[in-house]
């Protein structure tokens, strides 16, 4: 075969495209043969669960792997296959699986009662650990997911400003009811949304107005493809919020793992409110929203800012549940600037070496490895049907490495230099096979 580096683009070659489709078919058939128990579990689940799951992001053809157990950096399927896990529960699994200190905290909590229906000292202690990390959070309230956190942050901003329009961005994802990517968005909350172009100042400028209640943005779009916002763009939004009186909300549900002080700390840009979730609960359901004291005082019945008619009510049976509070406190001691930097360095190496491997193989026009720190994205050019991306997914799976089906790797604290090197070897092998089609 002609060297790919001399070709104008593999996807432009009809013979290569046909060979890739055949390779993809072969990989899928091998996956089906190798995972009969996962297939059976999926078929049984479909009888009672629409789509066979209760989390649409896990939809997969021909069927998803069914995971039986997990430990450290690995998961084991019902078919007994062990995989190096780079899904990391879509960034929530920052600590690896079954971290002993978090496990101990949860086990201890069982002995002191749960579903208490009362205030505990743990929630204030947890709030203090979070406030220490994020300069924008003067006061904070807990909920049960990042989705809830963003819903509450929007509602809080609308109540504070007495306005209704919310500026969001294309391909943004702030939870299952706040999704602005492709596909059916019928479940979105029916707010008055203006949708700007992410990381594009000029195409967003016309949407800045004095009727904005809030500007909601991810400093890096995760579900949107690991696209990082520039400091200039985030600064522009900060200025726009100052000039219009809108509340600037940073959705750091994912990005707070990329710097000890979040990407707001990394960029030195202070939002008015911040939303959090995922890993901060130590692997249990968790969400939080917080910000300026004058904004958050709307929830305080003793505040001079609030009155009975203006007081905001925020309830939730499990907002301060003992298990999440215990796990989150244990997790907060594990998250350190040094450990975050360590896995960020691993992610940087994965990107740098992976792109080098791709370039040296003449694959650079087809695959770019992007992202920030420990969040790694695989971007496939000229792949509208996702066949090339799927070939990488199934090939890595065959090598015992599980990445996100949509093309991402989320590093966690259980990952090591040795495991990154193993992944780079598998990536090189994968590229080599496709190169030889």
Q: Report the helical percentage.
A: 25-40%
Work out the number of β strands: 16
Strand content: 15-25%
Q: Which homologous superfamily in CATH is the superfamily of the largest domain?
A: Type I PLP-dependent aspartate aminotransferase-like (Major domain)
Structural class: alpha/beta
Order of helices and strands: HHEEEHHEHEEHEEEHEHEEHHHEEHEEH
Q: What composes the largest sheet? A: 7 strands, mixed
Note the total helix count. Answer: 13
Mean pLDDT across every amino acid position: 94
Shape: globular
CATH topology of the largest domain, which one?
A: Aspartate Aminotransferase, domain 2
Strand order of the largest sheet: 4-12-11-10-7-5-6
Keywords: Pyridoxal phosphate
GO molecular function: pyridoxal phosphate binding; transaminase activity
Cofactor: pyridoxal 5'-phosphate
Protein name: Glutamate-1-semialdehyde 2,1-aminomutase
Properties at a glance:
437 residues, 7-stranded mixed sheet, disordered N terminus, Aspartate Aminotransferase, domain 2, 13 helices, single chain, 16% strand, 4-stranded mixed sheet
């Amino acid at each position: 075969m002609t060297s790919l580096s001399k070709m104008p683009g593999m996807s432009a070659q009809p013979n290569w495209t046909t060979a890739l489709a055949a390779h993809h078919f072969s990989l899928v058939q091998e996956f089906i043969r190798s995972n009969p128990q996962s297939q059976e579990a999926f078929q049984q689940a479909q009888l009672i669960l629409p789509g066979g799951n209760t989390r649409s992001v896990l939809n997969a053809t021909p069927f998803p792997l069914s995971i039986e157990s997990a430990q450290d950096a690995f998961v084991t399927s019902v078919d007994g296959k062990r995989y190096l896990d780079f899904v990391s529960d879509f960034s929530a699994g920052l600590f690896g699986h079954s971290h002993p200190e978090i496990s101990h905290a949860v086990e201890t909590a069982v002995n002191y009662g749960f579903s208490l229906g009362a205030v505990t000292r743990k929630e204030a202690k947890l709030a203090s650990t979070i406030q220490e990390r994020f300069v924008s959070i003067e006061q904070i309230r807990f909920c049960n997911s990042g989705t809830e956190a963003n819903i509450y942050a929007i509602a809080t901003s609308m109540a504070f400003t007495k306005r209704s329009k919310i500026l969001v961005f294309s391909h943004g994802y702030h939870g299952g009811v706040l999704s602005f990517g492709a596909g059916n968005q019928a479940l979105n909350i029916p707010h008055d949304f203006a949708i700007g172009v992410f990381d594009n100042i000029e195409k967003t400028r016309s949407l800045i107005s004095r009727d904005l209640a809030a500007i909601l943005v991810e400093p890096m779009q995760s579900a949107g493809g690991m696209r990082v916002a520039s400091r200039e763009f985030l600064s522009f939004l900060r200025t726009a919020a100052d000039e219009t009186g809108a509340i600037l909300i940073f959705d750091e549900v994912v990005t707070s793992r990329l710097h000890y002080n979040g990407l707001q700390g990394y960029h030195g840009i202070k939002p008015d409110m911040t939303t959090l979730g995922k890993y901060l609960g130590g692997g249990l359901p968790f969400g939080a929203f917080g910000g300026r004291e004058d904004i958050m005082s709307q929830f305080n019945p003793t505040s001079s800012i609030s009155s009975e008619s203006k007081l905001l009510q925020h309830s939730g049976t499990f907002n301060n549940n003992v298990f999440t509070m215990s796990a989150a406190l244990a997790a907060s001691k594990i998250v350190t600037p040094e450990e975050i930097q360590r896995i960020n360095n691993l992610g940087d190496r994965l990107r740098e070496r992976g792109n080098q491997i791709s370039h040296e193989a003449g694959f650079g026009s087809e695959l770019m490895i992007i992202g920030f720190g420990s969040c790694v994205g695989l971007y496939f050019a000229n792949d509208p049907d996702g066949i090339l991306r799927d070939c990488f997914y199934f090939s890595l799976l065959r090598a015992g490495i599980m990445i996100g089906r949509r093309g991402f790797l989320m590093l966690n604290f259980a990952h090591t230099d040795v495991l990154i090197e193993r992944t780079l070897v598998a990536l090189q092998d994968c590229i080599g096979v496709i190169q030889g089609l």
